[in-house]
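Reopening this one. Same input as before:
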Amino acid sequence: MASGQLSRAEALASSGCRHACHVMLYSDTKTQLFGRIPIKHIILMQMRFDGLLGFPGGLVNPSKETLEAGLSRELSEELGVAIPVSIEDHVDSCYAPASSSSSSPHLITHFYVKKMEEEQIREVERAAASTATDHGQEVLGMVRVPLYTTKGGGGLACFLSHSFIGNARSQLVDSLLRLNLVAPKELHKALTHSLKIQTQTAQDLQAALELTEAKRKHT
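Same output, byte for byte:
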């Protein structure tokens, strides 16, 4: 078992820990971008209140509800629609990165993957923007993961260069490989380009910081 990973039983038996459940909802699609770039799959993530990308879900209390019941409750609040999640959808449990569990007690994350029909995914998107309790507050909006690469290098590489909460990026990458949603060679290429984008982003941020500093000194 990989470092930090736990079996479901070990996770539930851990004392003094908080638990969070999140799910990757996805579907197949035959649609094409600009009528020529196959999209192939729809994967939903969300822009969180803290500006980070993550999967739908949240904190649950195993002493009062099952992990799946807690996750379904969180999904109703964030997506505005009831989505049943079962033990069969469970992928892994692990300790969250230190940056995500800096406060005591430690946080254990449980990750699920659920395949849906394309129309069901579209209904989730509609409900999330119109009836979800958390829309505009804890959740700033749902986003689709671009699994393609455009001629100019945009798409998946740019998406992966954004900031993710906790281990959400590694959960996404692992799922893409495990479910064969993106070929390993293409994913490696996207990640390599993503690193270059982050370098350019750091340079842009430094330039913006210097501009702000100059303005601040003159006010």
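So the earlier flakiness isn't reproducible anymore. For the record, The chain has one domain: 5-217.
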